[in-house]
Each structure stands twice: as structure tokens, then as C-alpha cells.
Amino acid sequence: MSYWDDEFEEWLRKFMGRPRFGIGTRDILWELEQMRKEMERRFKEQFSIPEIPKELTKEYETPEGVRVREIGPIVYGYSVTIGPDGKPRVREFGNVRRLGITGPQLTAEREPLSDTIVSDKEIKVVVELPGVEKDKINVNASEGTVEISAESADRRYRRVIDIPYDVDIISAKSTYKNGILEIVFKRKEESKGTSIKIE
Questions:
Q1: Strand pairing partners for 159?
Q2: Tens of pLDDT along 170-196?
Q3: How far apart are CA 135 and CA 128, in angstroms?
Q4: Is the peptide bond before 84 cis (omega within 30 degrees of 0)?
Q5: What's the pLDDT at 14?
Q6: How many whole angstroms separate alpha carbon 48 and alpha carbon 30?
Q7: Domain 112-189 in CATH 1.10.3720.10
Q8: What is the per-residue pLDDT across 115-136, written as a single tens digit (0 to 9) for each?
């Protein structure tokens, strides 16, 4: 019985980015240790956060006299839904932003989970803002976007959401209940057109 088959060797070669090797030329334990180190390096590279905003850092002294530094909250999540075109839509939320090759960035503001529901007559924007009082929420709409910001004693939210250009911004109505903000826009009525006289 062999503990080192060709399939595992091929996977290891792809993961480690090294040429093929046989069991006789390398020690298995050494290779597994190298693989563990590479996975650890990639994990640190992927999830290292270079700078922590001061709003997310708390320092205090315990009754025993020990100085403690607390960081957080750090929030990251995503939602996957199937759009009307049948394609999956992934929406991220939280205060961890992905910035390409520079890695993730931590911000004091959380990007709340949101969804946009489009129908023939209206556009509904739904945003989760738990732990915030209604009078601390600001909503600003303009052509093509709606910006939501909110703040409480221990959290801040901000998100800019794209909306279709054919919404009637003046028609917007919003409600806030149990941490859920709903904003409903009516669609603009289509112009029936007019005949233009040539002079």
C-alpha cells in the first residue's frame, strides 16, 4: 500500500508550484512541513490587516492591573442570490474591504447588507441596519444612486447603492422597523413622445 499516489503528488506539485518529485528523492514529512509553511504564509498574506482604525481599538486596564488592547468588531460576510437573468449575485458586507493585490483593508464604517428588488412599477432597496435608531439614519438619493449612512454609540454604517436611472426620486418613501430599512421608488412614466414640426 502506498501513502504517496500520483494524484496527491500532482495536487502537491500544483499547490507548491514545484516540479514533480518521487518518494525516493524527498522525505514525505519534510514536504508536508513545507506545504504547511506555504499554507500559513498564504493565509497570513491573504488575511493580514496592515492598519487598524483607532475607532476599532480600545485599551483598558483590568482589575489585576494588566493593560489590555482590544480590536473590533471585525465584520465580514456575503450573500449569494440568483438574479433575474439566472446568474448568481454575490454581495459583500461588513467593515473588511478587498483591495486587489494590496490585500484587505479594515474600516471603522461597516457596509451593511443590502438588496435591490426591481419590478415593472417600482424599485425597492432593503438595507439591514441593526442597533441604530431611526433618527440616526440619513438617506440621500440622486440620479443612479442612493446613499445610506447611520451611526450609533458603537457602530457606523455607510453604503452607496446603484439604482436604475428611470426611478422617480421625488416619489421615494421609506420605513424602518426591527433594524430593516426599506426605500421604495416609483419608476418614471415613459414619455409617449410627440411629433416635432420642421420649420
A1: 148
A2: 888 999 999 999 999 998 876 566 667
A3: 15
A4: no
A5: 62
A6: 26
A7: no
A8: 888 888 899 999 999 989 999 9
- The CB-based long-range contact list for 85-92 (8 Å cut-off, 24+ gap) reads 91/115
C-alpha cell at position 46 = 491573504
Q: What is the pLDDT of residues 15-67, one digit of tens each?
A: 555 554 455 445 667 777 777 788 777 666 665 555 777 877 888 888 888 88
The x, y and z cell numbers of residue 114, run together, are: 443590502
- For 6, half-sphere exposure in the C-beta direction (CA atoms, 13 angstrom radius) is 0
Q: Domain-by-domain residue ranges, the chain?
A: 48-108, 112-189
Q: How many CB atoms sit inside 10 A of residue 114's CB? A: 20
User: Nearest to residue 185, comparing CAs of 100, 95, 119, 87?
Assistant: 119
Q: What is the CA radius of gyration of the chain?
A: 26
For residue 127, list its beta bridge partners: 114, 181
Amino acid at 55: E
Confidence of residue 5 (pLDDT cuts 50, 70, 90): low
Whether the Cβ atoms of residue 67 and residue 59 lie closer than 8 Å to each other: yes
The pLDDT value recorded for residue 1 is 36
